[in-house]
Amino acid sequence: MIEKIHAKRAKIGIVGLGYVGLPLVLRFSEMGFAVLGFDIAEDKIAMMNGGRSPIEHISHERLGAAVVAGFEATADFSRAGEVDVLILCVPTPLNKYREPDLSFVINTVDSLLPHIRAGQLISLESTTYPGTTVEELAPRIESRGFTIGKDYCLVYSPEREDPGNPDFTTHTIPKVCGGHTPACLEAGLALYGSVIDSVVPVSSTQVAELTKLLENIHRAVNIGLVNEMKIVADRMGINIREVIDAAATKPFGFVPYYPGPGLGGHCIPIDPFYLTWKAREYGVSTRFIELAGEVNGAMPGYVVDKIKGALNDRRKAVRGSKILVLGIAYKPNVDDMRESPSVLIMEMLRDLGAEISYSDPHVPVFPPMREHHFDLSSVELSPDVLAQFDCVLLATDHARFDYDAIAAHASLIVDSRGRFDINLEKVVSA
């Protein structure tokens, strides 16, 4: 295995061709490896095989170059035996009870299982609770009669993608890797070391799994803190962003986090619940983490209350008001809608009787989502369009918005991102 990797004769299989899997496809291809991609979305597969990227920040040219180099996408999981490495990049969401849903991981492994062979390596990259690799993947592989560490390798290496961040790319972000056995770890380090600038070995898959959760829980807790500080500062008539910027001048002991309308993306709103669920197995209550989750989860409601108050001050009700939401992706300058707080805010306002529209240069049509449904397309902004709305909510501060024009022509702005001058009478900070 290691010899084949070093010689770039190992064929790489990437399972799940989304925001994590597709960048890995491109990196392995650009480093000279043959790559086979697996996904269940036939339309996405056809698109990629035609050299067209389904993700905005990944160019068609870059994907086209991978196709020319031999990359192929398929929905045929029976081809798993063709590859030497299987890297699993599938979703790990929560169920309706806010508990871990490993169905995508388990169903994927079960689909691959009849077709795997001795001499392969499986790496799980999906974020999950400590013990998943040992408790769910290892027994399934062993059921095929393979001895892990001898004739099959199993590792866990959590993804660290930040879609749309120009300062970090797949190969420049250090990669944590833990193996089921020392031999597995050695193979995993060879695999990722061939395409990633820095690989960080840890002593077990459980350590690697908990590392990923700590990274994201650290952010969730600090965002929860600053969101709560925002509410306090607002009541006191203090601009919290001015406070944060002033505190950030301290050269030690302080890291600035900024408030917003809630948490979005596939990691931060979800990952803390994976740990709190698993911790209960050990009789541990993660009160601090859960409290941060409560604060962050309440932020969309806080923004809606600010909209209600702002309209009420202008002798208008939410019911019947025309409200324009600016930005429905979960963070600036990407088309990623996963767990976007903007969508929750839109639903709350719709339930209160508001007429909802949105504008997002990265999301031209509201996409199909498992739990959220809007038959809407992005509104093109103009002075006349902005003037039509009773309230404009800045939910995601994309760089492509013309903030001066919005400030000039909107009659009321509720700003959850701190982009407008709060001294303007028409601007309400949220």
Comma- or semicolon-separated keywords:
Rossmann fold, N-(1-d-carboxylethyl)-l-norvaline Dehydrogenase, domain 2, 13 strands, 15 helices, alpha/beta, 5-stranded parallel β-sheet, 8-stranded mixed β-sheet, globular, 430 residues
What do these coordinates show?
- It is a single chain.
- With 430 residues, the protein is of the alpha/beta class.
- It has three domains: 2-203, 3-Layer(aba) Sandwich (Rossmann fold), CATH 3.40.50; 212-294, N-(1-d-carboxylethyl)-l-norvaline Dehydrogenase, domain 2 (Orthogonal Bundle), CATH 1.10.1040; 298-429, Rossmann fold (3-Layer(aba) Sandwich), CATH 3.40.50.
- The protein is built from 15 helices and 13 strands.
- It has helices spanning 2-6, 21-30, 42-49, 60-68, 103-112, 132-142, 182-193, 205-236, 240-247, 271-281, 287-297, 299-313, 341-351, 383-387, 403-409; strands at 12-15, 35-38, 72-74, 85-88, 121-124, 153-156, 175-179, 199-202, 322-326, 355-359, 391-394, 413-415, 427-429.
- The protein has an eight-stranded mixed β-sheet with strand order 3-2-1-4-5-6-7-8, with helices on both faces. A five-stranded parallel β-sheet has the order 10-9-11-12-13, with helices on one face.
- Strand 5 (121-124), helix 6 (132-142) and strand 6 form a beta-alpha-beta unit.
- The longest helix has 32 residues, at 205-236.
- The radius of gyration is 23 Å and the shape is globular.
- The N and C termini lie far apart (54 Å).
- The model has no long low-confidence stretch (mean pLDDT 96).
